[in-house]
Amino acid sequence: MTEDEIADATVAVITTCFNQADIVGDTIQSVLDQKTPARVHHVICDDGSTDDSLNILREHEARLPKLRVLSVTNRGMAAAFNACMMALPPKADYIVLIGGDDWLSDNFVHECLKALTPDTDMVVPAMRRVHYPGHQEFAREMPPGRNPTFQQVWEWKTTWAWGVSMYRRSVVVEAGGWHPLVGGDCDWDMWIDLVRRGHKFAYAPKACFFYRYVASSMNRSKTKKDWDDARAEMRRHFRQSTMPGPEFS
């Protein structure tokens, strides 16, 4: 996109929060700190937190005109993201997805918009994995990935920023939002769907998001059975016999 097009763009960052009272403020601040002429809004859905997350989010909402906070009973990540989709500003044509435990570099939105071309629909940023607490301790930058094949995405054989990416709003609507039955793998499921539909990716190496990596991190604790169960649900969901794995009965 050109600088004039960026200045005319509206971006909505959507975030899920579940029991992240101590850290979700970092996410909110990183959205506030975006250095871009584009209009940036933030929609956060509290997914039935049992700590003080919702009260903290409401305090931020009261002082920030471009932040909207939603609250639902605990439904899981996909349902929370889908709730955010229904609360987007009407003019927001671009969406950034991020969890309440991660945060964005201050150039994230601008660099992602710059990377978009007429024939691309999603933008992949760089990713820096950090130990938490002590954000920069054991910092590790993940290698970039570009236009993965369906097989690479399906087998998770490419390092890819599944969740924290920029999407055109239209492709998320086309996909019907995030699939609730694959749990925390809803972002992976979305990417599989978008690759299957033939959508193209841009890469923004100067944009970056920071991923907190601890012993309890979802992907760190998964077993092979967890991955296989997720793929089995995706096969059922997509109903594609061409997808790797057993045929449908």
CATH class: Alpha Beta
Quote the distance from N terminus to C terminus: 46 Å
Instruction: Give the biggest sheet.
Output: 9 strands, mixed
Number of helices: 10
Strand content: 15-25%
CATH architectural arrangement: Alpha-Beta Complex
Which fold name is given in CATH as the topology?
Answer: Spore Coat Polysaccharide Biosynthesis Protein SpsA, Chain A
Which SSEs are present, and which pair or pack?
Layout: H1 3-7, E1 10-17, H2 24-32, E2 39-47, H3 53-63, E3 67-72, H4 77-85, E4 94-99, E5 103-104, H5 108-115, E6 122-131, E7 140-141, H6 150-155, E8 166-168, H7 169-175, H8 186-196, E9 201-213, H9 218-221, H10 224-238
Parallel strand pairs: 1-2, 1-4, 2-3, 6-9
Antiparallel strand pairs: 4-8, 5-9, 6-7, 6-8
Explain what the structure shows.
With 249 residues, the protein is α/β, with parallel strands linked by helices. It has one domain (3-238): Spore Coat Polysaccharide Biosynthesis Protein SpsA, Chain A (Alpha-Beta Complex), CATH 3.90.550. It has 10 helices and 9 strands. It has helices at 3-7, 24-32, 53-63, 77-85, 108-115, 150-155, 169-175, 186-196, 218-221, 224-238; strands at residues 10-17, 39-47, 67-72, 94-99, 103-104, 122-131, 140-141, 166-168, 201-213. Strands 1, 2, 3, 4, 5, 6, 7, 8 and 9 form a 9-stranded mixed sheet that branches. The longest helix is centred in the C-terminal third of the chain and has 15 residues, at 224-238. The mean pLDDT is 84.
